[in-house]
Design brief:
The protein is α+β, with helices and mostly antiparallel strands and about 500 residues long. About 50% of the residues lie in helices and about 10% in strands. Helix 6 packs antiparallel against helix 7 (about 170-185) and helix 12 crosses helix 14. The termini are far apart. The structure holds protoporphyrin IX containing FE.
């Protein structure tokens, strides 16, 4: 009997050791991850990371563990990269290894690895190359991207004129106009501003971006295995994205029915033509799923990012009227009042360029970046990250790296000007990220930001409803994205 009890205890001990060993190996997958706070079972480091202030919690942890550390978001280990040097070493110097897309369960529930943003491996390479080519070709086609933006900007100015200087909330003014630029590329036409379906789509995109930034989405990313079966707010993003998918699928059907292979009208047509050309290849990535989801990626990313940046930018200008006055002055000198701004004007407008860069730096639209992962076992700064390790390049920590920006938290356009007032590049300016996954719409976004800011400020002065000193620029929500606070302003004709 005694021998039996001892044997049971021995067996129990062996079993426990085995379970711990398996768990440990699973966590480390044979690698040597950077140090970090000790995780506890199931919760990981949730006691050290506030899901409503993840970015700030990561910054705090980096004070203790340095610029590269491991943190367990629930049971899932992620490697966090902080500051310009370390992010550059990973995304640029070891670009191939760090080019994988990390796990984002809250979104991948809809995408399941399809569409350029969430794809990996050959699928991603094919979709990225194709999307870039189409964006470029549509820029060089009959009507350049620049002309499309100028046309949209003039519609926006008309809308602003109709307000006659009365207070407005700018969100949908800006998202309608910006979204029409990418819409004309992916759908071949713009939407009327009064179109109810369009406004509904924009509302969905806006609310999906907000939902992606709530603690619910982060909890889902950690515990998707359980949460996918539970009711609750975390399901909102899923349903909103499904509705957006349905809309794109309906547009694809319309295109298919009226396709003329000799005259592609838009991104969707070009993709369908490629699907036909590849129809005998069972491994082709030109299939319906990738068509719908890549189109959705472009439509979503092309709308929310630029319009949120413009919205944040106007708020910053309301708070700093002296900066706005200098931009007006430069516009009057270089462009005057009688013609539309052109993208090439920026070469003569260093102050405006600096202001737009500073706006993007402080808007910091995706502070934690979009997660990456390593495509193979990767040696990095003396550690070994096993293939498939998720990596968060904290873009916000680069944009506020005190080694590269004198006043990281202040709105200070001089960060991008030299002593003679000439525009000065800064290598830590990475709102579009860097390396192989760098934003696919960067060229379009830069052109939009310049042309919208200059067109609006050429014609209007911004007026705040409260004294500038009382304007609070703290984001309304800060998670995956930084969502600007809601505010009203008046646009007074100049
Ligand atoms: C101010 C505007 C914008 C900002 C700040 C921005 C920022 C970003 C960032 C940080 C990423 C993640 C890069 C990474 O994984 O490291 C990204 C990816 C992406 N962006 Fe943008 N973006 C902007 C505008 C646009 C526009 C206008 C489009 C569409 C035309 C677009 C399409 C995409 C796509 C498709 C990806 C995924 C690229 C990939 O995974 O290979 N973005 N963007």
């Amino acid at each position: 009997m005694e021998l039996g009890a001892a044997f049971t205890v021995f067996l129990g001990l062996c079993l426990s050791c085995l379970i711990i060993l398996i768990a440990w190996r699973q966590i480390n997958k044979g690698g040597k991850l950077p140090p970090g706070p000790t995780p506890i079972p199931f919760l990981g480091n949730l006691l050290q990371v506030r899901t409503d202030a993840t970015f700030q919690s990561f910054l705090k942890l980096s004070e203790k563990y340095g610029p590269v550390f491991t943190v367990y978001m629930g049971p899932r280990p992620i490697v966090v990269l902080c500051g310009h040097e370390v992010v550059k070493e990973a995304l640029v110097d070891q670009a191939e290894e760090f080019s994988g897309r990390g796990n984002l369960a809250s979104i991948d529930r809809n995408f399941q690895g399809y569409g350029v943003v969430m794809a990996n491996g050959d699928r991603w390479k094919v979709l990225r190359r194709f999307s870039l080519t189409i964006l470029r070709d549509f820029g060089m086609g009959k009507r350049s991207i620049e002309e499309r933006i100028q046309e949209e900007a003039s519609y926006l100015l008309e809308e602003f004129r109709k307000t006659k200087g009365a207070p407005i909330e700018p969100t949908f003014f800006l998202s309608r106009t910006v979204s029409n630029v990418i819409s004309s590329v992916v759908f071949g036409s713009r939407f009327d501003y009064e179109d109810k379906q369009f406004l509904n789509l924009l509302q969905m995109i806006n609310s999906a971006f907000i939902e992606m930034s709530t603690p619910w989405a982060q909890l889902y990313d950690m515990y998707s295995g359980i949460m996918q079966y539970l009711p609750g707010r975390h399901n909102r993003i899923y349903y909103v994205i499904e509705e957006l998918k349905d809309f794109i699928a309906s547009r694809v059907k319309i295109n298919e029915a009226s396709l003329d292979p000799q005259n592609p009208r838009d991104f969707i047509d070009c993709f369908i033509i490629k699907m036909h050309q590849d129809k005998d290849n069972p491994h082709s990535e030109f299939n319906l799923k990738n068509l719908v989801l890549t189109t959705l990626n472009l439509f979503f990313a092309g709308t929310e990012t630029v319009s949120s940046t413009l919205r944040y930018g106007f708020l910053l200008l309301l708070k700093h009227p002296e900066v706005e006055a200098k931009v007006h002055e430069e516009i009057d000198q270089v462009i005057g009042k009688n013609r539309q701004p052109r993208f090439e004007d920026r070469a003569q407008m260093p102050y405006t360029e600096a202001v737009i860069h500073e706006i993007q730096r402080l808007t910091d639209i995706v502070p934690m970046g979009v997660p990456h992962n390593v495509t193979r076992d990767t040696h990095f700064r003396g550690y070994l990250l096993p293939k498939g390790t998720d990596v968060f390049p904290l873009l916000g920590s680069v944009l506020k790296d005190p080694k590269y920006f004198q006043y990281p938290d202040a709105f200070y356009p001089q960060h991008f000007l030299d002593g003679q007032g000439r525009f000065k590049k800064n290598e830590a300016f990475v709102p579009f990220s860097s390396g192989k996954r760098i934003c696919l719409g960067e060229a379009m976004a830069r052109m939009e930001l310049f042309l919208y800011f200059t067109s609006i400020l050429q014609n209007f002065s911004l007026r705040s409803l409260v004294p500038p000193a009382d304007i609070d620029v703290t984001p309304m929500v800060s998670g995956f994205g930084n969502i600007p606070p809601t505010y009203q302003l008046c646009l007074v004709a100049r």
